[in-house]
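Field reference: "sequence" (input) and "structure" (output). Example, holo-[acyl-carrier-protein] synthase:
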Amino acid sequence: MSTDCPILIWMLSLNREYTQEEYDACHKVVDECVEHIKVPYDPPNPETFRQVMTNMLPLLMMRHRRIPRAKWRDCVTPHGKHWIEQTPDDMPPEKFLHSMIGYHLAHETSLCGMAMTQGIQRKVVNIGLGIKQVAVEPRGVTVKAYSESMAHKLTPTEQKLIAPELGDEVVLRRLCILLALKSAYIKAIGQPAGFDWARLEFDIPEQMARGDGLPLQGWEFRIFRSSLGVARRDLLVEEHYQCVCAFFRGTKESTFVWHESAKELESWVQFINIDQMIKVIPKLTA
């Protein structure tokens, strides 16, 4: 993997239910420190809590780098791609040019994530994060029914990869990998919600990515899994997610990098939970 524009990912596990006080404290931080987003104040709605927690991740990342909130600003391209620009102050021009931090936020169910990289602005914004829970929607339907409902997002080649005879477990896992790949790429190029997912094809056995039938060149796709233990009232539930980070490196070929073990991830993926985020709230606004 290239050392140019190193990729780091923060994953926040919503591993338990939140209190009113925690919701208020987090919502206040986002309201005061994240000017470009307004999350509705609706404590009973867990989706607003997901949005709040996800939008706290850039604050946490910059705090981790010991850069005060007053020393950086959030910028956005016409396509909605975000990057963080630090105050040039005493930075030499060349260092300032390579100090831009491109990032992308995503969340699903109990997992919030941020993919980020640092370098020159036109490179770092080409990053996307896809998160797909390995579960059927709506809850209770069969894997066959769920995969059929997603068929319009897949090409004929991809549909062969999730043939029913492969068994429910394989079909669901492969389907979620395909959906996470497509989501990550669509977000990386800044496409709107109505983008036709069937225009993209990920032929995983051949390690090939195509758009409108043509090879997608220069992309790096990092594919990994996240497993969480989540407390739901008196039960501890295990949830599994397929995650993909897509980043345009401009190389001749596109590459697929698979990370299976926790050890492989620990150098570039950081996992935290609600308690850890709540603990640092007083420092995020400093």
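Residues 4 and 119 are 8 Å apart (CA to CA).
The mean pLDDT is 95.
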